[in-house]
Amino acid sequence: PGDITKAQVEFDLYRSSNPTTTPDLVVPATVDGSGLATGSVPSLGLDNWTVVMTTSDTDFFAGGPSDPAVVTVYQPSAGAYVTGGGWVHDPSYLDRPVAVSEDHDHGSFGFSVKPRKDGSPSGQSVYTFRGADGYVYQVKSNSWQSGGLAISGRSAVFSGRATVTVVDPVTGTVVSSSGGYTIRVDVYDGSPIDTYAISVYTSNGVLFHRSGTPAVPLALGGGNVLVHP
User: Which of 23, 30, 35, 97 would bridge 12 by S-S if both were Cys, CB 3.0 to 4.6 A apart?
Assistant: First the structure.
């Protein structure tokens, strides 16, 4: 009971290159009578932004931080590129590295990748999911060395190196963070169904996490994939 419009809400935004729990941008939000929180950003740089909604305990409206969502800001350009953002139902394949939370099984993603003149990829890729242990797992690309990008019609696949960061969303502390992982992402710009799949491997080539496969990608639960050949 109470006036929910008095809830104190903000959106914390993190760049894809930010490995910390300190946001690059904090956007205050207003809440209407239905509980819809809205914030405004005058301008936002090109990137795959991770967004977390938080509340304070002012006027007794409080709750833990939301699961992270990824928002992709990109600039259409001539030539080939692939971009997208949204979420899939993470199947918790073999519970690696932990089981995915049954109450929060959304795997959120964002990516914007294009080829350089020498054919190697450039850009960013982010994937996040919440484990049954309560921690948030963030997989962020950190290098395209030895990676690649291939676009064929409406399909695209790219690979590179990544950092995996584990965050305790309750305390906001980083539990662990390590680079040296590799990722492979397969996407399809369908009509009307887009698909997404990601495989994450340790530096020893051991499967760390998988959401969909190249042969059986996942239909998006929300969002969009755009492949521009």
Answer: 23
